[in-house]
Amino acid sequence: MSTAQYPARARVAAWAVHILTMSGLVWASLAMLTTINPRREYTWMWVWLLVALVVDGVDGTLARRARVSEIIPWFDGGIVDIVVDYLTWTFIPAVFMYVALPMGPRPVAGLLMALVLSSSMFCYANKQWKSTDYYFVGFPAAWNIVALMFYVLQTPAVFNIIVTLIFVVLTLVPTHYAHPARVKRFRALNIGAVAVWFLATCWLVAVYPHRPLSLVVVLIVSGGWFLLAGVLRSIRGAEPETTVAVTDF
Length: 249
Prior knowledge:
It catalyses: a CDP-1,2-diacyl-sn-glycerol + choline = a 1,2-diacyl-sn-glycero-3-phosphocholine + CMP + H(+). It is a multi-pass membrane protein. It holds the Pfam family CDP-OH_P_transf. This protein has 249 residues and is an all-alpha fold. The chain has 10 helices and 2 strands; from the N terminus they run ααααααβααβαα. The protein has 2 domains: 1-100, no CATH class; 106-249, no CATH class. 68% of the residues lie in helices and 2% in strands. The protein has a two-stranded antiparallel sheet. The longest helix has 29 residues, at 8-36. The protein starts with 7 loop residues before the first helix and ends in a 13-residue tail after the last helix.
């Protein structure tokens, strides 16, 4: 069936989902402008990245419900999604780390930015980036989360450099990282940890540069759970009864 043979309502719905995905480019642009603005109003950068994250979290589900790939087969929303993800999860956070965070002398900070941007290609271009039980294989280029943790915890340059190098290496190593909604094991705990981490992070961004100890502890514990869940998966292996479908996360 050609595109024109679908009802107008279905075609409008499909294009609406594409427009929603493409709106991520708007939020990315606003975040980038805030990042390089001399006024250093970084709270707004995080707000725009959050909006982009929310869009990224819902557009895939909406695309499947609207049968976007069936109704508009010639326009690949998946490519748009990858572009937006690279900008919001990797490129803008990497630039932010260079211009706003203690990352050592400028040449060192520039080299680290280049390593972050280039190593992330081994995530975005990796056809084996997810396991049969929906774990990410290799660090999933979530540099927005890394940069956010550096920012709210106000960690020193030596710590930031070491952690950045570790995650650059882990991008190339087949370690595992839990997807909070898709991984079956500990799913309720994973979703709860994400919610707690999200609220604690928003609070710390709002009160920055203050760092209430209770919020810092909550942030580290809830975020640390995901690292632990990934370590446990790497040690025990995949759940044998799990099979993977050819769908996006």
